[in-house]
Amino acid sequence: SVQLEMKALWDEFNQLGTEMIVTKAGRRMFPTFQVKIFGMDPMADYMLLMDFVPVDDKRYRQVPRGQYAFHSSSWLVAGKADPATPGRVHYHPDSPAKGAQWMKQIVSFDKLKLTNNLLDDNGHIILNSMHRYQPRFHVVYVDPRKDSEKYAEENFKTFVFEETRFTAVTAYQNHRITQLKIASNPFAKGFRDCDPEDWPRNHRPGALPLMSAFARSRNPVSSPAHQ
Amino acid sequence: SVQLEMKALWDEFNQLGTEMIVTKAGRRMFPTFQVKIFGMDPMADYMLLMDFVPVDDKRYRQVPRGQYAFHSSSWLVAGKADPATPGRVHYHPDSPAKGAQWMKQIVSFDKLKLTNNLLDDNGHIILNSMHRYQPRFHVVYVDPRKDSEKYAEENFKTFVFEETRFTAVTAYQNHRITQLKIASNPFAKGFRDCDPEDWPRNHRPGALPLMSAFARSRNPVSSPAHQ
DNA sequence: TTCTTGTCACCTAGGTGTTAATAT
DNA sequence: ATATTAACACCTAGGTGACAAGAA
Lengths: 227, 227
Description:
Chains A, B: It is found in: Nucleus. 2 copies of one chain form a homodimer. By secondary structure, chain A is of the alpha+beta class. The first copy, chain A, has helices at residues 7-16, 99-103, 175-184, 199-202, 210-218, and strands at 2-4, 19-21, 27-28, 34-37, 45-54, 58-62, 75-80, 90-91, 97-98, 107-108, 113-115, 125-126, 132-141, 156-160, 166-169. Helix content of chain A is 17%, strand content 28%. Chain A is globular and about 65 Å long. Mean pLDDT of chain A is 84; it is low at 198-227. The chains hardly touch.
């Protein structure tokens, strides 16, 4: 069995409509897909991998900008989905490894990157921007038998967490998603308005919060109460 | 067969008497031990690992400081070696992997760290400061046979490159070693006096070369001509 | 005196959203 | 108009030798 890590954070994003940036060079997911695994044979070898399947057959588009909302928080259907991207798969870099190894700590897919470049040759996952995707997690038992191909059907298990669904985008559409990313991703700390909790601790006189100040004056929408 | 990478740099250090820093938290080696491997069975599994054996049974000490030399460049024998440290081994983190995987690129032991902490529980290599060591590189063939233990003797090969010998130290003794490390290790770039080659390219007005200026006025010994 | 330790400024390496310019 | 790109300031994370203080 498999348990999704940071489920509370995934739920919070999912409630707003998770968006994941895709770039030409490849962008990591945030939250990162991480799981705890139970019930493996400690001595057997397993491959762990992920893939992404379309949630529906639709292409989405941003809602028109009103006078007061810079970006709206919902989506319009723009039509039928674009041609499917190459259905790539991301093997966890530690694969193959023993069950004991996989189970003794959280398995993190933080090396996985998303791209919209159909010609990508870095092995990244290729997705269509403005389409919705469902991440899937697969566990493959490495069968030591010589005729293992015959048992391929029974040697893997697939796990789907619906709360990890997202829309691939090249720029964030929902400002609340942006704010939640900024609030929860350590690498976006530079864009935080203020974190009263540990601000005095981390504060260095040399660091000028230029962008933060700029962002503050720029964005009329207040950020959600998330720590 | 195995080929040592950066042999020219290793030779340059070895000629001066290579020193490697050991710290409580663990310190990487520089140069990093890297090899190219040839002649593996592409489909077979191998484990790659390193260990470190004493070169001799001696403890060394710094030569007394003369009036003109802040640190001398040679060593005195201080007596018999201290009790041997726990003989740890460092498995390359990609182990086990197929021969094809190992051979298709340079194998780098840049995660290996040296410590002088006898109670280290981070899995680092424990060495005695002021003792000389010889790194060794081992290739272990993962024998698929059930009674593989019986063939252990013929299933591994050891490679020794004498030019990678070094003295473990907690602070550099030979100033020329320090200068060569600064000149050749990218992470020590902050201590470079000046590199006329690519200085205009890398120069940013904001970066004040404070330490470099200080070091310049502090060290009477000129650095070797190394780029 | 010699050796070790902990802190520091200065780097490398790379992950963020922002922004302006460009493409569609 | 909407969508994408590329450069950028600001971070995280961690590898350097210098230095001062401490230990042996």
